Structure formats: structure tokens, C-alpha cells
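User: Um, what's this?
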Amino acid sequence: MKFIVTLTLFFTTASLYAQTDAQKYESLTPEINKIIRKTKAVGVSIAIIENYKVVWAKGFGLKEAGTQDSVTATTLFQAASMSKPVTAVAVMKKVQEGKISLSEDVNKQLTSWQLPDNAYTKQSKVNVKELLSHTGGISGAVFRHYTRKDSLPTIVQALNGQAPAINEPVRVTWYPGKYVYSAGGYSILELLLMDTEKKTYPAIMEQTVLAPLQMEHSTFDYHLPGKEFASGHLKKNAVIEDKYMVIYPFSFGGLWSTPADLARFLAEVQLSLKGEQGHILDQEHTRLMLTPVTNTSGSQYALGFTIAKRGPVNFFGHDGHNYGYISSMLASLEGGYGIVIMTNSENGWKAVNKIKKLVGRKYWALGPYHPH
């Protein structure tokens, strides 16, 4: 009987704490609704991390303008470039397992394609650490988005810029070491994972990151079978024809997810950095992943994450922008808190920035909170 009473008390207390957390952040709702109205963002979804846990997640606005279909906490959005850190964790897992080398010439690790040598690579070969940190000298090749009706190229066709690919070839266009933000570099990493694991990229990501972290509402399968998703909106909030564009190769922008799932992902990295056991990466590889490689525009880029200081706090995270979708995620390097915000509108930047400032000032002591 004493055990039952103690157990009941434990669950009641745990429920009370969860309810208190939810109530605390629920007070943000009126202010967030005001921000959405002012910025004309169509739909917004948010998740907040506190003490290394997702304590609040909520959807606001509409999945599609002109409908009454409300965004919920489980509505999928395109994560855009927030896909890169997820890809980077999968790569680092294979590094930890000894299947991929950070420092060896990437061409020695690829089997189904080779990055063409030229005058730049004669001086220094491109390695995986450089690809992860955008310092491999890879072209910032423009990857145009596909429609849902298009036939997608193979990853090798995409890297070579061969039809049906609609992008330029991925090539080394500067000496490795210089920071050039490059989707092409992450496309090479996508193929490296496929060559290493002999599986499709969505399957690798599901097995390596999404399933272990119980990111049940996340997928690299752009068909979205049975999934509830938010349509993308362009200028003046016009709905994208056929609801959304397809991002390919998948590694740099093809993830569909929710803020709650991505918040779990960030908390996973925080716990690994803290030294807790039983996570995808150990502390050593997490520290390596979060060690800045380069400085640019006041921020530092590590292996898949941006590192930036806001007030007295050091954060890691990433922004994302695909046609019709804008998002941002950041988490503290210490203390176990953070936020993920996803929107389905080109008006999303203002909403994202205002919400980050609102939460930062009200809960993270990043300056005075001025509700108006």
C-alpha cells in the first residue's frame, strides 16, 4: 500500500510540474497571436526546451491561407537548412563508429562518384570536416526546387548536374579552408552516407537519427504518406502551386518535421554535450561537432551548427529557408534550454525573430522584456 501511495504521489507531482511548465509558456499565446497578425505570417509552430526537455509545443494560425485548417503541434513543416545539422549528426555517428573519417580525402571514402580534381585540389584534398563546416571550397551551386510531379535525378546525376537534375555540377571552386556556404558540400555527404551504409538516404536518416530520437513526425520522404502538413506560401501569402516544392538532394533541406521533434533533437545534443550516456553521440564527438571552425558575420560555424552568443549565453542552432517556409532553432550550450520556430510563409522571418526575442527576454534574461 505504501508503494502504491508513493507511486501515485510521484506521478501526481510529475504531472503537476508538467502542467506548471505548460501553463507558464501558455501565457505567451496572446503575444504570439499578436505577432502573427502584425507580421502576416500564415502559420507558426513553436516548441520550447527547458531543463533538457520539451516542455511546451503549440501551433498557431493556418496550414493554408483561405482555409479554416489550423496548425497543430504535429503539423509538418519543411525544415529547410535545419536539415543540415540532422545530416551532420548522422555523419558524426558514422565517424564515431569508425566508418567515416573526418580528415581523410573524401574521394578515398566515396565509391560511386568522385569529386573532380582541379588546380584547387592539387594543393589540398577535400575532407569530411571541411564539407560539414562549409570550408571545402565547394561551389555554392544553386539547387532549384522540383515540383511534386517531376522525376528526381539520382544523387550522382545531381552532383554532376546531369538531366533530369536542374542544378549546376558540384565542383571545387576555391582552395579548401575558405568558408563558402554550400548545399553542394552536403550533397556529397549524402552520397557518402549512402556509399557507406548501402541504403537510401531517407532510410539511413530514419535508422540513425529519427527513430532513435522518437522523431515520429519527421521524414525525408517528400511524398508525405498520411502526414498532416502546412502548405508553403510565397509573396503576399499566395499558396505554392501543388502545396509545396520538393527539395533535392535531401541532406541540405529536404527534412519535414515539427518543432517538438527538432526540439528533441536539440535536447539530445545538449545531453550528449553534458556527458550523459546512451545517446547517439558521445561527449567527445559532440564537443567536436560544436567546436567552431570558422567565423563569419558575427557567428561561428562548427560541424553542422552555427555557434552564436546572445547576451551572456552561447547558443548552437541553425536557420532554414525554402520557398514558402522559414524557420529557426537554437539551444543553449549550457543549462538545457532552447526554442524551435517553424513557419509556412515568406513573411516568416519577422515572426521568427520577434518570437525569439519575446522568449529570450521573458525567460532567458537576454535583456528587458517589452511586450509592446
The two ends are 54 Å apart (CA to CA).
